[in-house]
Design goal:
mainly alpha; about 300 residues
Length: about 300
C-alpha cells in the first residue's frame, strides 16, 4: 500500500484541507488526512460509523478515518506543550471532529470523551503546561514515564529494553516509515506509537476505499492488532492510570482517562487483551547511574556506552 501522500478517502471523513505539508514524526509520511497543529481540521458530519465486519463500505472508511483522527489527536496532546498545538487541540473545529468521530462504544469511553472535551479550554494552556512539566519534567524517567520500555516485568531479561526498541523500529520500517530527524524522541515514545496507529488506520481507510488486494487489507489490520498487543495496548493502561493519579489538573487528568479508555476500546475492537493497569516500572539500574555520575554523562540512550558517547 502507498506510504507517502496517500489520497484521503472521500465521504464523511474526507479531509478538506488547505495545508498539504502537515508534519508527522515519521519524516517520510505526509498525513494528508490527519490534522496537525496549524492545519485546517477535517470537517466531519456527526454520523456513527458502523462495525468493521459486514459494514457498508463507506461506514468502514469513516470508522477507520475516525480512529486515525483520534490517534493523531492523542499524539498531538502528548507532545511537548506549545501554544500553537494547544490552539489546535482546543479550537472549535477540532472539538467538533473529536465529538463527531463517534466511535465511542460504551458509556465509559463516551463519558471520558465528554470530560476531556469539557476540560479543553483555550485559556487553560498555562495550567496544562505546568501540570505537564510537573508530571513528566525533562527526563525519560519519572512517576509516569512517556516511554514504553520503562514499563515491564522487573525480572525480565536484561535485553528486554533493546529488544523492544528493535521491534518497534521493525514495525515502522515494515510500513516504509522513518522517524523524522527532528522528532527528538526514542521509537518507544507514546507520541510515535500513537502516530503509527494513526498511519495504520489511515492506510486501512485507503485500502477500503480503493478496494486494494484483500491480503493487503488483512496485513494492515493484522499489524494494528499485533502493535496493540505487543506495544501500545500493553503499557498504555498502566501509564494512563499513573498519570491520572499524578495530577489534579483537569485537562491532563481527563486526557489520561480518555487515553486509557480509548486504547482499551481499540484492544477490544481487535480482540486483544489490554495490558494490566498495575504494570510495574522497571527498576533504575543503580550501577549504570553511578557509572554515568562518575563520567559526567547523563541520559544515555539504552545500550549506549559512556566511552562511545564521550568520543
Amino acid at each position: 500500500m502507498p506510504t507517502q501522500s496517500e489520497p484521503a478517502p472521500r465521504g464523511e471523513w474526507a479531509a478538506r484541507t488547505t495545508d498539504t505539508s502537515k508534519r508527522s514524526v515519521f519524516g517520510n509520511y505526509r498525513a494528508e488526512g490527519a490534522p496537525a497543529s496549524g492545519s485546517t481540521c477535517p470537517e466531519v458530519a456527526p454520523q456513527r460509523a458502523g462495525p468493521e465486519t459486514g459494514a457498508p463500505l463507506q461506514s468502514a472508511i469513516d470508522l477507520a478515518m475516525a480512529r486515525s483522527f483520534i490517534h493523531r489527536f492523542l499524539a498531538k496532546a502528548y507532545e511537548d506543550p506549545m501554544p500553537e498545538t494547544w490552539r489546535w487541540l482546543t479550537q472549535a473545529q477540532t472539538i467538533y471532529s473529536l465529538r463527531a468521530a463517534n466511535v465511542f462504544a460504551g458509556q465509559s469511553l463516551l463519558r471520558s470523551a465528554e470530560a476531556l472535551i469539557s476540560a479543553l479550554q483555550p485559556a487553560g494552556f498555562d495550567s496544562f503546561l505546568n501540570a505537564y512539566l510537573a508530571a513528566f519534567g525533562h527526563a525519560a524517567r519519572g512517576s509516569c514515564p512517556l516511554n514504553e520500555i520503562e514499563y515491564g516485568d522487573i525480572k525480565a531479561d536484561p535485553l528486554f529494553q533493546p529488544h523492544r526498541l528493535a521491534d518497534l523500529a521493525a514495525f515502522y520500517r515494515a510500513f516504509g516509515l522513518e522517524v523524522a530527524e527532528d522528532a527528538g524522541e526514542r521509537q518507544d515514545h507514546i507520541c510515535l506509537e500513537l502516530e503509527f496507529m494513526c498511519v495504520l488506520a489511515a492506510k486501512e481507510a485507503y485500502a477500503h476505499e480503493h478496494q486494494v488486494d484483500a491480503d493487503q487489507l488483512a496485513q494492515c489490520r493484522d499489524a494494528q492488532k499485533k502493535f496493540l498487543r505487543e506495544h501500545l495496548g500493553r503499557w498504555t493502561p498502566a501509564f494512563a492510570r499513573r498519570l491520572a493519579a499524578a495530577t489534579n489538573e483537569p485537562a491532563l487528568r481527563a486526557l489520561a482517562e480518555f487515553t486509557r479508555a480509548f486504547v482499551e476500546s481499540e484492544c477490544v475492537r481487535f480482540g486483544v487483551n489490554p495490558g494490566s493497569e498495575e504494570l510495574s516500572l522497571r527498576p533504575v539500574d543503580e550501577a549504570a547511574d553511578r557509572a554515568c555520575d562518575s563520567c559526567g554523562i547523563n541520559n544515555l540512550p539504552p545500550g549506549a556506552l559512556a566511552a562511545e558517547a564521550a568520543t
